[in-house]
Records
---
Amino acid sequence: MNEIIKAMEERRSIRKFKPEMPSKDDLNRIIEAGLYAANAKGRQATITVAVTNKELRDRLSAVNAKICGREEGFDPFYGAPAILIVLAEKEWANRVYDGSLVMGNMMLAAHSLNLGSIWIHRAKEEFELPEYQELLKEIGIEGEWEGIGHCAVGYVDGEYPKPAKRRDNRVFWVE
Ligand SMILES: Cc1cc2nc3c(=O)[nH]c(=O)nc-3n(C[C@H](O)[C@H](O)[C@H](O)COP(=O)(O)O)c2cc1C
């Protein structure tokens, strides 16, 4: 089968990762694949913040868990060591569409490199916090950005998940 379509059908969200960090080469390839996503008006209005620093990764995890009301100690990134955060220009009308395509490309690219990934939500709420806007400034990012999603990446721990059965009646042809 065509490799790209095969990857699209086989990729699954991973919820158990090994602690080992993927190589920077692989992470860069994933990020780069995201940068090539289709984007409205060719504006390229998204950025990606790649977090491999464990201390920051754990801080993000704790805030994310708090936002979704989970108990202390729950890791919403399921142990993934690398967190690729996609943000988009806050005033850009197509920010969510553009950012979502970046996320999709990155998850597929991770799969093609034999890495696991998952979209973890609540980036919007995180980057509404003043400390997160401050963090962006600290790392030299100016302007107003909206969080779109975290692509958590790492090596899959355990069995690869099987896809849920596709729901019926989701395709309508007019010929
Ligand atoms: C917009 C979006 C937000 C998601 N947020 C989370 C999340 O916060 N936590 C989580 O465990 N999975 C999250 N997921 C993963 C979905 O649960 C997963 O894609 C879905 O169950 C289908 O499974 P699959 O990706 O293996 O096909 C998110 C997926 C999307 C597209």
---
Amino acid sequence: MELLCDWCGSKANKGENTVYWELPDGSRAIQITETPAVICSTCTMVYQTDEVTKQIEDQLLLVDTQKIGKSIIYQKLMELPRLLKRNYFDFS
Ligand SMILES: [Zn+2]
């Protein structure tokens, strides 16, 4: 399936980048490295898909964020044990 840039509609590539994310409680921001990203060489936009954004936000609500240091690899974040079995905060 061809990946198209959300911003300019050109063909884009899958890649990774480092993002900074504020914790749900607003106490601090963490760095998430090797985060799946869409990279567009035409307009130079690098962004996370809605799916990845939702995965990060859900995960940060469900894990013990005290266990996360200043920086974490995306895959490690996703592997952290969840405190709740499901996301009770998702009302969508
Ligand atoms: Zn683009």
